Amino acid sequence: MNNVGKILIVDDDKMNRLLLNTILSRMSYHVSEAFDGIDCLEKAVSLCPDLILMDVKMPGMDGLDVTRQLKKNDETKNIPVLIISAHDQLPERVRAVEAGAEDFLSKPVEQIILKAKVKSLLKIKEYNDNIHNYQKKLEKEVEKKTVSLKQALDDLQSASDKLRLYSMDTILRLSQAAEYRDMETGEHIQRIGYYIHAIGKALSLSDQEIETYQYASPMHDVGKIGIPDQILMKPGPLNESEWKIMKQHTIIGGKILSGSDSSILKTAEAIALTHHEKWNGCGYPYKLKGLDIPIAGRITAIADVFDALTSKRPYKKAFSVEKAFDIMAEERGKSFDPELMDAFFSIKKELAEIRNTHNLDYKAPLTLSELTFPQQSSGAYLP
């Protein structure tokens, strides 16, 4: 907005307009005049004043009706209106406020009060304009970055079936960015996919569902990119504040993957958000319970926990496959969907073969008593 305020005086009385114009012009404001309501509505749009001084008693449309029309128009609704009336009773003031006016001034006009109110309303208008302009600038920046991110994510889905294997290779490599920071290997995210494929077959899911879950699952921990190294790579137990930050990786991952039209990336978003939810509602981040947890998140949780139990972590060594099965059996109906767990246990041999075939990070097993947990609560050994 210009430093010199623009003021529109609306009054059917020429002498009243001249008096107000003289006072305000001497204050170095740019002053325009309108002789009735219709003239005001037209000039409010064409001149874009910073303040309107509105008389009430005018032929045709009175000042309160004009004010209502101004406040209904998106182009003029943010222009402050100062009602000037010969009637100073409370009901008149209430009607002015109800019409949308920002302030009220009684006749005869006292110059000192007029000047103070005009200055005050112009400052408010300038402040509101600055906020509005800043919001528009932010909206444009957010829109620009959102479009760029959405385009980048959608490009992953645009590959043809002929290039699907190459796309999977790309996803695996991108997913490893988070896994390497967590001292994991590419074997971990590949095993997750193999486990999900095997569980999906045991559940008699369609090939399309299995493929979608398998392609989306490698990105389940992509949100760990946003977790500080001193927490993510801490060799000992996390304290309460650190654990609170660590749990944010689900929210971060969901935001990274949100907004895409790709079915795989939509599923990846759901997995990133819900793979730490538990069947009994004690998980995070939203404490979802039972079937409120998407099946993609429920299956990935089983695969992720099984692999975590049989893998070396900064705070533990690896359990044997047999011990992992025992631990997970205790969580049937607690952490995990009992139906999915039945399918999981029906293919124990296949799962063990997958683990032992892709076991670059597999270390000697240990007993439960040797393990130091990052969170001391029921089911705390589960990641």
UniProtKB/TrEMBL annotation:
SMART domains (alphabetical): REC (SM00448)
Sites of 4-aspartylphosphate modification: D55
Gene Ontology BP terms: phosphorelay signal transduction system
Domain of life: Bacteria
Gene3D superfamilies cross-referenced by the UniProt entry: 3.40.50.2300, Hypothetical protein af1432
Stretches assigned to coiled coil: 124-159
Pfam families: HD_5, Response_reg
Keyword hit for Transport: no
Domain HD-GYP: 163-360
Chain ranges of the Response regulatory domain: 6-122
Keywords recorded for this protein, A-Z: Coiled coil, Kinase, Phosphoprotein, Transferase
Family matches, as InterPro entries: CheY-like_superfamily (IPR011006), Cyclic_di-GMP/3'3'-cGAMP_PDE (IPR052020), HD/PDEase_dom (IPR003607), HD_GYP_dom (IPR037522), Sig_transdc_resp-reg_receiver (IPR001789)
GO molecular function, one term: kinase activity
Protein name: Integral membrane sensor hybrid histidine kinase
Organism: Desulfotignum phosphitoxidans DSM 13687
Lineage: Bacteria, Pseudomonadati, Thermodesulfobacteriota, Desulfobacteria, Desulfobacterales
